[in-house]
Amino acid sequence: NDVEDLRSQLQKIIHHPDLSGFFSVTHTIRNEKSILHNGHILRPDRIVEMPDKIVIIDYKLSEHKCLSEKALHTYSGQIESYKEALSMLYNKQVEGYLAFLKGDIKLLKI
Predict the structure, then answer these.
(1) CB 21 within 8 A of CB 53
(2) pLDDT for the residue 95
(3) Helices (H) and strands (E) in the chain, counts
């Protein structure tokens, strides 16, 4: 049924080796947090505050292999904006990732 399928997909995401560290209860997590930057409101899907860095994750409900160059350019620009804004707010290294959740889960560092 749909609920079980959703539960299974969520388990795959939070236990995926590339993503599981970003779901630790020891980190401060902000989901869909609005940030005002250069007159624009930015809303990253997930901000993970770790002791030594800030990690931004933007989820995409598509497969990485189906992504066009234009879409990758757009998504990368979006992550770069998030990184710039958060680097002004935190005195820490900021990393950004696209997480493709359809099919084989893939994490792409931007």
Answers:
(1) no
(2) 96
(3) 2, 7
Proportion of the chain in helix, strand, coil states, percent, rounded to 5? 35, 30, 30
Higher pLDDT, 70 or 3: 70
What is the model's pLDDT at position 92?
92
Query: What does the alpha-carbon distance between residue 31 and residue 46 come to, in Å, rounded to a whole number?
Result: 5
Over the range 51-70, which residues count as b (16 or more CB within 10 Å of their CB) and which as e? eeebbbbbebeeebeebeee
How far apart are alpha carbons 59 and 79 in whole angstroms?
Answer: 11
CA distances from 85 to 2, 19, 69, 100 (A): 37, 23, 24, 23
Strands (E), the chain: 28-31, 35-37, 40-42, 46-49, 53-60, 93-100, 106-109
